Amino acid sequence: MRKLTVKGRYLAWDNGKPFFYLGDTAWEIFHRLNREEVEKYFECRSRQGFNAVQSVALAELCGVTVPNAYGKLPLHFTNELPDPAKPDIDGEYSYWDHVDFVIETAAKYKMFIVLLPTWGDKINKCWGQGPVIFNEDNAYTYGKWIAQRYADKENIIWMLGGDRQLEPRHRAIIDAMAKGIKEMDKNHLITFHPPGNSDSTKWVNDAEYIDFHTSQTGHTPEQSYESDKVMLEMSRASEKPYMNSEPRYEDNPACFNTKLGYCWDADDVRQNAYWDMLSGTCGHTYGNHCVWSMTKETDTYFPYTWEEVLERDGANQIGYLKKLRLSRDFFSLRNAPELIAENYEGMGHMNAAKGNDYGYIYSPLGVPFTVNLGVFENAGSIRASWFDPRTGKSKIFAILPAYGKTLLAPPTQGKGCDWVLILEAMI
Questions:
Q1: How many of the other CB atoms lie within 10 Å of CB of 333?
Q2: pLDDT value at position 1?
Q3: What distance in Å separates the CA atoms of residue 305 and residue 290, rounded to the nearest whole number?
Q4: What's the CA gap between 150 and 158, in Å, rounded?
Q5: How many other C-beta atoms are found inside a 10 Å radius of the C-beta of residue 370?
Q6: Please, how many CA atoms are within 13 Å of residue 31, restricted to the half-sphere of its CB?
Q7: What is the pLDDT of residue 308?
Q8: Alpha-carbon gap, residue 307 to 37, rounded angstroms
Q9: Is the pLDDT reported for residue 412 higher than 90?
Q10: CATH number among 3.20.20.80, 1.25.40.10, 3.30.420.40, 3.50.50.60, domain 4-326
Q11: Cβ–Cβ contacts within 10 Å for residue 297, how many?
Q12: Which CATH class is domain 334-426?
């Protein structure tokens, strides 16, 4: 079995080839889509460059009480509650037979399923549908069962948590589930999906079973305009790889409030993606509000069906992030604020990273800025190009001296006019 591993701050295949995690959130895919729809979803996301799909076995939206597309529930009931110790595997089209199909379809398209065994409201119903059905004993039993079922699948990453805080009793349940998974599955990485405006170093930083950390900078302004700062805070809290598993979703009503009259769009999606990538992340996650939910009946809060927004601008553009990241020496890249002589504040702030003989600076608003060119030691000159995150194309515009400072103006300015400056040291 080919295995995904941790290599320093990044992920790699066991042959050393780098892996940049580019995820989509399809939380409800097991619960709401039929097999024809599953095929359509993966064909599209594969074509767009995604290689990971975050999905929940026991889903958020009534996932243990409302049947899936084939009329099946995931668990038998005990004392009128779904019982995690009794998965319902009866019949050819059982709930878990359909989960198998989704995972196998993802593998066909060379994509990982980032598998949450359960959404967090089944452990801590501080809000949401619930019901709470887990304790330490059945979490361990369920963890062993689901891990044994999928241990031999090459395309699995485990993701615990599920958007809820962990008080000590909840942490004990997560630990028990992880113990069950680890006993049956030695092959796959494990991470954790935290609540909004938080990251996994706040909840499970001491957990040996965690292979890489994630944040949820979320859908409100508190962390959305400083997600790169959050990434760097994670890097200081742990030596493990880190990334954003839930930034602003395309088409998500800002602050979850339709009365504001603004939904996050492709420009907002790109800002978080490039800010975060240049902070040294091992990957990034995209999301669309009507895709994670697999919306079929629209309303003011979910205004589109999932099929209508599969080809949204942000979804089509996010693959260029992965291509850029893999285009040069992968493992040498590190955050490099010293490339920028003077930064801006808020939405206009830039971020920069440097690898062996190259550097990137991201300008989210296309505002002119000054570059420190002397950071490239032993370079004779610097080749400068503008990379367009909307098209994935780059164009050389200057050969610069490898010393001093210079003022550069991106080709266009304003929201939606973001650019990446590519600097290449010429020896």
A1: 22
A2: 83
A3: 6
A4: 10
A5: 13
A6: 28
A7: 98
A8: 9
A9: yes
A10: 3.20.20.80
A11: 6
A12: mainly beta
Give me the mean pLDDT over the 29-34 stretch: 98
Cβ atoms 99, 63 nearer than 8 A: no
Q: How confident is the model at residue 92 (pLDDT cuts 50, 70, 90)?
A: confident
Average pLDDT over residues 217-234: 97
CA 116 to CA 313: how far, in whole Å?
Answer: 27
Non-local (6+) Cβ contacts of 133 within 8 A are 64, 75, 81, 82, 83, 84, 122
CB crowding 57-74: b at 16 or more within 10 Å, else e: bbbbbebbeeebbeebbb
pLDDT in tens, 177-191: 999 999 999 999 999
Q: Classify the C-alpha dihedral 111-147-192-75 as positive or negative.
A: positive
pLDDT at residue 387 above 90? yes
* Residue 228: Cβ-neighbour burial (10 angstroms; 0-12, 13-18, 19+): buried
Counting Cβ atoms within 10 Å, is residue 356 exposed (0-12), middle (13-18) or buried (19+)?
A: exposed
Q: Quick one: which H or E segment has residue 36?
A: helix 35-47
**Domain limits of the chain?**
4-326, 334-426
Q: Report the pLDDT value the prediction gives residue 11, as an integer from 0 to 100.
A: 98
Q: Where are the alpha helices (DSSP H) in 129-279?
A: 136-150, 168-184, 201-204, 221-224, 227-237, 266-277
Query: 260-310, pLDDT tens digit by residue?
Result: 999 999 999 999 999 999 999 999 999 999 999 999 999 999 999 999 999
**Cβ atoms of 197 and 223 closer than 8 Å:** yes
Whether the Cβ atoms of residue 99 and residue 88 lie closer than 8 Å to each other: no
Q: Which residue reads 């490339």 in tokens?
A: 339
Report yes or no: 309 and 251 within 8 Å, Cβ to Cβ: yes
